[in-house]
Amino acid sequence: MSYMKTTSLTIRIDKELNDLLNKASQQTGKTKSQVAREAIERQLRLVQMESLRKRVMPFAESRGYLTDDDVFREVS
Predict the structure, then answer these.
(1) pLDDT tens for each residue of 38-58
(2) pTM for the full model?
(3) Residue 32 sits in which domain range?
């Protein structure tokens, strides 16, 4: 296991989200912290991807790529 500097984050969650977190932890065999970290990372990557998409869209549209399907069709 590699050394990783970490910081702490304290958040408040409601009972429903806590129940979902507990269930995901039990189902995956991961700690609640691991599940939460992975979920936060996934969400932040989605935000990052959406930001990149917004920046690229004008260039893509000018070349006729209007939807994700247009891009998938081209690369498939």
Answers:
(1) 999 999 999 999 999 899 888
(2) 0.72
(3) 15-75
10 within a domain of the structure (yes/no): no
Q: How many domains does the chain have?
A: 1
The token pair at 29 is 């065999």
Of 62, 67, 6, 70, residue with least CA distance to 34: 6
Spatial distance between the Cα atoms of 58 and 74, rounded to a whole number of angstroms: 18
- 51-65 as b/e, with b when 16 or more CB fall inside 10 Å? eeeeeeeeeeeeeeb
User: Encoding tokens for residue 4?
Assistant: 């990783």
Between CA 69 and CA 60 the distance in angstroms is 12
- The whole-angstrom separation of Cα 69 and Cα 74 is 8
Does any domain span residue 62? Answer: yes
